[in-house]
Amino acid sequence: MSDAMPVTRALFDEVMVPNYNPAAIIPVRGEGSRVWDQDNREYIDFAGGIAVSCLGHCHPAMVNALTEQANKLWHLSNVLTNEPALRLAKKLTDATFAERVYYANSGAEANEAALKLARRYALDTYGEQKQEIIAFHKGFHGRTFFTVTVGGQAAYSDGFGPKPGGVQHVEFNNLESLAAVMSDKTCAVMIEPLQGEGGVVPGTKEFLKGVRELCDKHNAVLIFDEVQSGFGRTGTLYAYEQTGITPDILTTAKALGGGFPIGAMLTTAEIAAHLKPGTHGSTYGGNPLGCAVAEAVMAVVNTKEVLDGVKEREQWFRAALEKINEKYDVFAEIRGQGLLLGAALNDKYKGKAREFLVAGAEAGVMVLVAGMDVIRFTPSLVIPETDIAQGMARFEEAVAKVVAANS
Ligand SMILES: *Cc1c(COP(=O)(O)O)cnc(C)c1O
């Protein structure tokens, strides 16, 4: 295959496993919150690579960190440690409740580590009858077989043979439904403080506080999956900071690397002690390139200026969406926190979220969906006000088109 061969969307269907159905365009270049496709057509990016590109595309802080590290040292494996990994772990533990860090390459891997650690901690501390894991309907925790089984959509975990056992699901934001199944056999509760894939649904403060109390009552480990809600997305470094409670284990990925694949599990020294040498691992986890980039991302994101800026941008997004809604009456509700926002469609447009996404792309703005009824916005945390205004003008065009097509 020569470099001159044309690369088209059609090639995807010839050479790729068909588990995705990507859009017709192929982006080739990005800068800040703008992306250009093969025909040099420009898009404003309100999707951020699914809540990943927290500093937009090719932010100089990330490019510099990656280039500098690329000329020093790429990879060692876990037989050796490295400076960026240790520096980043120090910064993550200084900035959070956590005292220990385990590195992974993705959100699913960070969650896999969290679940295995919770099981091992319970086994060592309380015995083998304590192994029930409780999670929530519509929760999402990744696609490994354990994490997808803990996720709350059976459709994603069905059809692959016997599932890992000891996993139960209850209703999100419903404390009674959790209390009804919790017992001293409960090993862990895994929860997104703000459900992302499940429709951008915030856990209420009272609910999350109740979850913490039930975990304490039954000596169960509370795992916060902050893969999507974390790393500045909600206006604090992690969303748990705004809940008044603290988890025992927290997982982080997506925005952590700003586009470089890296994930991490954070926990206390007491719980971490149960992942003894040989119990778990990863060849690439904590590699110098990823950790150097994450360090650079954190230096920008974990500042008052950027975190306050997230809350300010949330207001700009909400105002623009409310204004569109006044004119076209398509949303039942704008919800979420910081720059993880969902526009839930009203009854007339229920099930049609994808139509808005497709019309958006045609109008030159990239948005996401969260299920069939919610349009999701997860832009760069530093997206300029002018890009928001221009992107929203394009999104309004898209909304007008969908409204016209449905009237
Ligand atoms: C995206 C996501 C994951 C999975 O992360 P991957 O990097 O795709 O493995 C897990 N949990 C939540 C809450 C997510 O949003």
List the helices and strands and how they pair.
Elements: H1 9-15, E1 27-31, E2 34-37, E3 42-45, H2 48-51, H3 60-70, H4 83-95, E4 100-104, H5 107-126, E5 132-136, H6 145-150, H7 154-157, E6 167-170, H8 175-181, E7 186-191, E8 194-195, E9 201-202, H9 205-217, E10 221-225, E11 249-252, E12 263-267, H10 269-272, H11 288-301, H12 304-328, E13 331-337, E14 340-345, H13 353-363, E15 365-366, E16 368-369, E17 374-377, H14 385-405
Parallel strand pairs: 3-15, 5-6, 5-7, 7-10, 10-11
Antiparallel strand pairs: 1-2, 2-3, 4-12, 8-9, 11-12, 13-14, 14-17, 16-17
Helix pairs in contact: 3-11, 4-11, 12-14, 13-14
The protein binds pyridoxal-5'-phosphate.
Pyridoxal-5'-phosphate is lined by residues 106-108, 111, 140-142, 192, 196-197, 225, 227-228, 253-254.
Task: Describe the protein.
The protein is of the alpha/beta class and 407 residues long. It folds into two domains: 153 residues, Aspartate Aminotransferase, domain 1; 229 residues, Aspartate Aminotransferase, domain 2, CATH 3.40.640. Helices cover 39% and strands 18% of the residues. It has 14 helices and 17 strands. The chain has a seven-stranded mixed sheet, with helices on both faces. A four-stranded mixed sheet has the order 1-2-3-15. A hairpin with a 2-residue loop joins strand 1 and strand 2. Helix 13 packs across helix 14. The chain is globular, with a radius of gyration of 21 Å. The protein starts with 8 loop residues before the first helix and ends with a helix. The mean pLDDT is 97. The structure holds pyridoxal-5'-phosphate.
